[in-house]
Amino acid sequence: MSSQEEASDLNEGDEDNGFASGPTVARSHLYTKFDWKSAVLWLRKLTDLPIAIKCIQSWEDAVLCMEHGVHPWLSNHGGRQLEGAPSALKTLLAIHRECSEVFCRCEVIVDGGICRGADIVKALALGAKGVGLGRAFLYALAFGPQGVDKAIRILKTEVETTVALLGVSRIQMLNSSYVRPANMREYP
Hints:
Blueprint: H1 3-11, H2 36-46, E1 52-56, H3 59-67, E2 71-74, H4 88-98, H5 101-105, E3 109-111, H6 117-125, E4 130-132, H7 135-141, H8 144-165
Parallel strand pairs: 1-2, 2-3, 3-4
């Protein structure tokens, strides 16, 4: 397809068709030339800042991030974009089991499916350097700034309680021995 045809395709069919939104099959060819090396090189030309690749859903992709000097951001968008995608915690566990070197060379960030303080503690214990929450604060925002403040207090209390019940005095002392992944055995 020529660049003129591609431009024409981008301008066609953008009317709202209810549930039919997002890239069409005809547009999917635009991404066929994607590869990690050229994408990271392109991003590095744009900035000197650290680069994180979001929506990593497998330990193999986390290894690719490590090999290309970028940070993996584990996310399944809270399960709303691709039903059945592994949770960020399951992907984190898979990285820990299959290639824990990723945690030594990258700052792993986790979001999606994090609902409670215990989820935050699990992510940190498994090696995440950061944990993002979206939906919890979105719902809390329905009650204004006070709702967000309360959500933060609840999560803080849950984290503190979980850490205390583990017998840990500081979050920095957490490690994978504190996570019993019985309910996460089947990882991606």
